[in-house]
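Quick one, T. Sequence first:
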Amino acid sequence: MDVKAEYGKKVREIRKGRGVSQESLADLAGLDRTYISDIENGKRNVSIETIFKIAKALDTRLIDFLNID
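Structure tokens:
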């Protein structure tokens, strides 16, 4: 299993489900839009701090991002 790719898919799924653009998510999380894109495309290893920022920006629990099948 490619954890980076699975996490990226989960971020995209939750972000789109909330109707949030990559740019808006980046602004809310204090990250760059290209960084969000790289995460969603499974190109970045992310720290727990970044996972927390994204979860908070999307008003989502951390466990929702970590629950990967």
